[in-house]
Amino acid sequence: KHILVLHGPNLNMLGVREPGIYGHQTLADIDARLSQLCVEQDAGCAVFQSNHEGELVDRIQAARHDETEFIIINAGAYTHTSIAIRDALAAVGIPFIEVHLSNVYKRESFRHHSYLSDQAVGVIAGLGPAGYEAALRYALAH
Ligand code: DQA
Q: What tens digit of pLDDT does each residue of 128-137 get?
């Protein structure tokens, strides 16, 4: 099973970035845990972070050619702005789960709309790093 985990802008700053909202774990901590799960489950997991919308689009397009069967994506602020990322996910037709560390619904109203949610298999928000893990377990089982 091949899973692609995508992290959008500013997620490289986890650990130092607004720890009251996003917690103290770094992206490396989260990725290490996900990689460990993938090894345990004998799955191939690729992880990619970018602060650039076009690079995320390019990586989603590349997933067509690398046997990716499921995408787990935290698009960060692009969740609320990016028709391009939505279109890329639709173009490749690979099922995806949308993840947010924070509960976006108890934050500013501009975080309540997502360009991805209505296309996602499911959405997880507010569970911190455990949300990625739940998404990964689901992707591995389906
Ligand atoms: C986020 C929520 C977004 O609103 C925000 O722009 C982020 C992170 C989250 O994981 O909670 O960068 O996607």
A: 999 999 999 9
Domain ranges of the chain: 2-141
Q: pLDDT tens digits for 58-74?
A: 999 999 999 999 999 99
In short, whether 79's Cβ falls inside 6 Å of ligand 1 is yes
Q: For a ligand 1 pocket test, name from 97, 100, 123 the mutation site with the most ligand atoms within 8 angstroms of its C-beta.
A: 100
CA-to-CA separations, 57 to 18, 78, 82, 88, 100, in angstroms, rounded: 27, 11, 10, 6, 19
Whether 34 has a binding-site annotation, put simply, is no
Q: Which of 7, 100, 115, 132 is catalytic?
A: 100
Phi first, then psi: give them for residue 129, nearest 5 degrees. Answer: -55, -25
User: Which fold does the domain 2-141 belong to in CATH?
Assistant: Rossmann fold (3.40.50)
Q: Does ipTM exceed 0.90?
A: yes
